[in-house]
């Protein structure tokens, strides 16, 4: 073969590789599968003002496509009200879901509260128990027109034959342990169900993107002993001795009203109460972290076996927890009101979702050879109602949601922990 012919063959190979990459990077039918994180949930609520800032919608916008989001107008679901400057879940009215009737099926199939088992095997029903928030959202998102032959989230998403799909599921399999005191999903069960989800989506999609799950013990829903001592303005040894805590224990939002009610007769905190766990012991936290690592091993193996691109959200959140992130000259953290987590301490702020979206975009660009532009996290932060000026957590002229009128901001300063109202909202989401 002559040198000239070799060049022609080489050019042809380059063109073929480029075309193949373009095919794999096709976002014309972009589908998302998952739970509340992929739905754009925020502040214990699904509402249009939060949904549009979800990481999945940010990716779609940057890629120039539409997910046909199931946007819920105010007052959203569940309904939130402000009582004495604190956000409280006040209702489960399904009225906002009327906006979804007679609309095209969304390509963001994510249902808040779904575990991997629900993703695979929970078909929506037409008239769910109105007190079962997960079933209500599943019905309205997956089957808004009340089909007599409804599909599960997995079936519905696979049926769209996506050009590119995202599968991000599993956080609730660990998180519910913190909310309800239940055991995390058994690793073997998780593995079997996740295999079904991964292989189904890989078979249906031209290209599949998976993400592992974050360490749920790193969320702002929990308060460490050191943080508790700082909030109460007491020495750490005093807090440990009085409340019966050990250095690596953590407490949930339900610890604070109990401490407040104690007044001058401080005593050991109970392990749990009628509303849920109060103290999460170090051993339990270690168990949950180990379970998350085991889930992520399953996800990594499935990604490799199915030729999927893997986004490492676990390391992203761990890095933010350890070092924070400087955005617009201000350091954001994963602490309560630190800028990454919203008022419920579990779901990201607009800025947090933008950071996650960029992690997906960077990974997909590297894997696909595409050039999807990153979203400007700094620009998002400038209008994010949950990003306070570094020198002030109360007085701000940046519009509704800031300053003393901000939910969970009392007298211009936040409480330092997730409110019971927001915690109740998370538990509403998971209660069956």
Describe this structure in words.
This protein is α/β, with parallel strands linked by helices. It has a single domain (27-218, 283-430), classed as SGNH hydrolase (Rossmann fold, 3-Layer(aba) Sandwich), CATH 3.40.50. It is 43% helix and 11% strand. The chain contains 17 helices and 15 strands.
A few lines on this structure:
With 432 residues, the chain is α/β, with parallel strands linked by helices.
Strand content: 5-15%
Number of helices: 17
The CATH class designation is: Alpha Beta
Strand order of the largest sheet: 1-4-5-11
Query: What's the story with the biggest beta sheet?
Result: 4 strands, parallel
Structural class comes to alpha/beta
The helix content is 40-55%
Morphology: globular
**Total number of strands:** 15
Q: First CA to last CA: what distance?
A: 70 Å
Q: Which regions are unreliable across 5 or more consecutive residues at pLDDT < 50?
A: 1-24, 393-406
Please give the radius of gyration in angstroms.
23 Å
The CATH architecture comes to 3-Layer(aba) Sandwich
Going by CATH, the homologous superfamily would be SGNH hydrolase
CATH topology: Rossmann fold
Q: Structurally, how many domains make up the residues?
A: 1
Which tags fit this structure?
single chain; about 425 residues; alpha/beta; Rossmann fold; four-stranded parallel beta sheet; three-stranded antiparallel beta sheet; 17 helices; about 45% helix; globular; disordered N terminus
């Amino acid at each position: 073969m002559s040198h000239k012919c070799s060049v022609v063959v080489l050019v042809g190979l380059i063109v073929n590789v480029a075309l193949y990459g373009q095919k794999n990077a096709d976002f014309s039918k972009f589908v998302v599968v998952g739970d509340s994180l992929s739905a754009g949930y925020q502040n214990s609520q699904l509402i249009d003002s939060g949904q549009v800032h979800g990481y999945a919608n940010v990716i779609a916008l940057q890629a120039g496509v539409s997910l046909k989001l199931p946007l819920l107008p105010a007052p959203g679901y569940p309904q939130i009200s402000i009582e004495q400057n604190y956000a409280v879940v006040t209702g489960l009215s399904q009225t906002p879901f009327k906006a979804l009737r007679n609309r095209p099926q969304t390509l963001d199939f994510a249902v808040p509260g779904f575990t991997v088992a629900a993703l695979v095997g929970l078909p929506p029903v037409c008239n769910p128990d109105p007190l079962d928030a997960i079933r209500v959202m599943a019905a309205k998102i997956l089957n808004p027109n009340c089909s007599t032959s409804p599909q599960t989230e997995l079936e519905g998403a696979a049926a769209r034959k996506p050009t590119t799909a995202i599968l991000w599921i599993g956080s609730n399999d660990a998180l519910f342990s913190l909310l309800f005191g239940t055991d995390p999903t058994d690793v073997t069960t998780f593995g079997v169900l996740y295999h079904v989800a991964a292989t189904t989506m890989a078979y249906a999609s031209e290209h599949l993107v998976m993400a592992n799950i974050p360490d749920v013990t790193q969320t702002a829903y929990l308060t460490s002993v050191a943080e508790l001592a700082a909030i109460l303005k007491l020495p750490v040894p005093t807090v440990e001795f009085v409340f019966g805590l050990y250095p690596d224990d953590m407490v949930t939002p339900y610890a604070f009203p109990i401490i407040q009610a104690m007044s001058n007769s401080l005593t050991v905190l109970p392990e749990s109460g009628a509303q849920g766990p109060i103290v999460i012991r170090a051993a339990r936290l270690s168990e949950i972290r180990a379970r998350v690592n085991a889930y992520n091993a399953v996800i990594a193996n499935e990604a490799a076996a199915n030729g999927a691109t893997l986004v490492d959200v676990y390391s992203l959140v761990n890095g933010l927890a350890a070092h924070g992130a400087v955005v617009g000259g201000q350091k954001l953290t994963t602490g309560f009101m630190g800028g990454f987590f919203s008022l419920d301490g579990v779901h990201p702020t607009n800025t947090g979702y933008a950071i996650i979206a960029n992690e997906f975009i960077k990974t997909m660009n590297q894997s696909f050879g595409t050039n999807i532009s990153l979203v400007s996290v700094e620009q998002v932060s400038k209008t994010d109602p949950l990003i306070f000026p570094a020198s002030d957590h109360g007085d701000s002229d940046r519009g509704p949601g800031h300053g003393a009128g901000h939910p969970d901001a009392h007298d211009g300063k936040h409480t330092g922990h997730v409110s019971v109202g927001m915690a109740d909202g998370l538990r509403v989401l998971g209660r069956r």
